[in-house]
Amino acid sequence: METKQFKAESKRLLELMVNSIYSQREVFLRELISNASDAMDKMYYRSLTDENLAFNQADYYIQIIPNKADRTLKIIDTGIGMTKEELETNLGTIAKSGSFAFKKDTEIKDGHDIIGQFGVGFYAAFMVADNVTVKSKALDEEQAHQWESTGTEGYSISICDKEQIGTEITLKIKENTEDESYDAYLDEVQLKEIIKKYSDFIRYPIKMDITKSKPTDDESDEYVDYVEEETINSMVPIWKKNKKELTEADYENFYQEKRYGFDKPLKSLHINVDGTVRYNAILFIPENTPFDYYSKEFEKGVELYSNGVLIMNKCGELLPDYFSFVKGMVDSEDLSLNISREMLQHDRQLKVIAKNITKKIKNQLLHLQREEREKYETFYDSFGRQLKIGVYSDFGANKETLQDLLMFYSSTEKKLVTLDEYVKRMPEDQTYIYYATGESIDRIEKLPQTEIVADKGYEILYFTEEIDEFAIKMLMNYQEKEFKSVSSGDLGIDEDSNEETDQGKQEENEELFHFMKEHLSGKVKDVRASKRLKSHPVCLTADGDISLEMEKVLNTMPN
Ligand code: ADP
Ligand code: MG
């Protein structure tokens, strides 16, 4: 038996590691499972070049064995194992990654992609254990060896008995302290959750005995406990499956399993990209607005996986704010991760992916708008406001992306229409896209200002939300047609009456107008005879660029 000291730097590094790299202790399991998976992948690669080695998929699995009485947790794999030298170099030297070296020496194909690269993951075990024993039998060695360490005090290596090729790691789970409990890592149910959360898509089965209970016989109310081995992980991620083999129900199940929402997704999007940055994604457009959606508490983002291993729960950089309602996940093998694998080193790849999925979401929404109008209306009812906010914010930078997704209620169609549909219906003599603002469709219908435009046979868009007019002001025009409020001074309509008669009316009623102006002083700027009234005796119009409705909103804003 030889006892060795960690190198001085290693000792400090280890302390640092254990205490500061990971924000959550539970990721230790992700790291150990990833290593086990890597070790089995290495067997697979060896079998490609070694004729004597047959790779029989059923022989490769990971076993998790918690033991509450002993306070131990075992992680066993049937991978390539480690020789005595490998135990020493790979586990005895921090930041030494045998897997990274292996990757460099082996041509990786087939999607059997090795996860390890930094040579620190293993030490995460010391966040939850004060003693770690690694028994390993390497493919190339007769004798098995055991590596043991209590963390910062160095490690010892000795020979041991182990029949099967592979590695068995035993963690002696820390005792609970006043502030911290480590019991979760000995509990079947909680372990299962951690595995599901981080390692669901590891390609090898992760097995654990689960205690269940059943009635002693058909008639009895008595229950007996029994143990059944379960494979915890789903292994093949849905996003790597062939789209043709998947149904809408499969995506819905995934949505529910992942608890992206309590509703059903309105539409799902399955993306496989093999470009400069490779990635797979499954994205959802939800049906309902989350209760906190339009509040500050709402956090946008999709899950980010690197090679099937969860890195981030909510990656906000992948979604622009105006598509913040999108749920789902992105998996890429091309991310450069930082050491804790919780953050990314460069966001170049992320930017490429974000741009790409933004385009795809837009196209999916346009498709929905064209082909499944009813569903689109449901979507628009939930998230249309967010699109309008998107048009308005960033000084209209997103108008190209968003303008075709907008819809407004139409005076002639009596339903929501797109701007494109409006423009296509415009008669030749119509110059502007007309809109009217008000609290509700009913209120707008009664506005005297709409009459003259409606009488011309022109369609009017009804703006019932405060944001509507602000968004439109940002667009300025659509397909070179300017927007015009029905209450603006010049409607651009040939109002078929001659100046003289109006002048006459103005003079005839001078006294009345004067009287009214006096009584309304401070409330109106002027009282005049109008050419635009048909059945209504009077109407309010706005001078200049700002409509009455906008004025109202601006007046309510804090200075
Ligand atoms: P990384 O996985 O980033 O390389 P780790 O600290 O997790 O770093 O592991 C260090 C090295 O130890 C691995 O690269 C691998 O060579 C070796 N190793 C760890 N766990 C196992 C295992 N279960 N079977 C075989 N080798 C292992
Ligand atoms: Mg690792």
In short:
The chain has 559 residues and is α+β, with helices and mostly antiparallel strands. The protein is built from 16 helices and 20 strands. The protein is elongated, with a radius of gyration of 34 Å.
What does this structure look like?
With 559 residues, the protein is α+β, with helices and mostly antiparallel strands. The radius of gyration is 34 Å and the shape is elongated. Strands 1-6-5-4-7-3-2-8-9 form a nine-stranded mixed sheet, covered by helices on one side. The protein has a six-stranded mixed sheet with strand order 16-15-18-17-20-19, sandwiched between helices. Helix content is 32%, strand content 22%. The protein is built from 16 helices and 20 strands. The structure holds adenosine-5'-diphosphate and magnesium ion. The site of adenosine-5'-diphosphate has 23 residues, from α2, α3 and α4.
